[in-house]
Amino acid sequence: MTAGRAVPANGEGAISIGNRSLSFLQVGDPTGPLVLHNHGGPSSRLEARLFEFSARELGLRLVCVDRPGQGRSDPHPDRSFASWAADLEAIADAHRAETFAVTGWSGGGPWALAAAAYLDPVRLVHVTSIAGASYGAFGRNWAAEDLSRADALGGFLALHFRPGFQLMYELLDIAATHFPERYKQELLKLSGPADLEVLADEHVLNVIVGAGRECFRQGAEGLVIDARLLYQEWPFDVAAIRRPVHLWQGSADTYVPEAVNRPLGERMPGAVWHEVTDGGHFIAVSHADAILAIAAQDLAGPARADAPG
């Protein structure tokens, strides 16, 4: 791994891994312990702006990285869950972090779970998945019956008719890139009462729309590869993950229903289940303080253990 020379105190940056470049946005306390956040989909590194205040208040250095082919990160067509876990560790290396935490929201949740499956828990001291798109956790598109009609159809196309799946995301690309107001209105239309309360904050809404638009900077292909991997049967067994993994879920989530993630909480030995009663998909924003406070506590653990006396 070759790290980019300048990892900024805060703000935009890039890290080189072999002949690939991964772009990121860093917020919070630039001297604090490291949290690597996996953005949702469609989203990008700009999602970090949603957690800037919480990270700063908790003394955390939160870094959100564009996954390959999204935002400004180079494509990596042959990537896998294991390769992304290795990328996350390389990013931690570049930030000179002896220990670090990983979080993931929505389409980023499975990538956080992959880190839990593949990385050493001695170094990766905290993992959180928030309303994770766990569509391949127990087989190909296993949760189709619990998804919205559009998401279930997306899973079917991802597995059986890639051109149709590609078209779905290309149309989303057009909407996000060229018709952001319409994209915003569609987001609001799909949201339940709890999410509309969160999205009433114009800053939050604009960050989410802007992060979605940035996802398609290079077109839809990066997101297509990302999403297809989520719908396919995952190569790791969640039932074999024994380290603690925090699973956050809103009981009224209309994007990723509770029925998608409840089985993970039941079958993953290390699962710590956090249900937000009447909460929606955007609990990542409304409960950011509580979510990141647990990460901060786990990151402080090794420091306390190493302290004299």
UniProtKB/TrEMBL annotation:
It comes from the Bacteria. Gene3D superfamilies: alpha/beta hydrolase. It holds the Pfam family Abhydrolase_1. Residues 33-286 form the AB hydrolase-1 domain. This is AB hydrolase-1 domain-containing protein. It comes from Methylobacterium oxalidis.
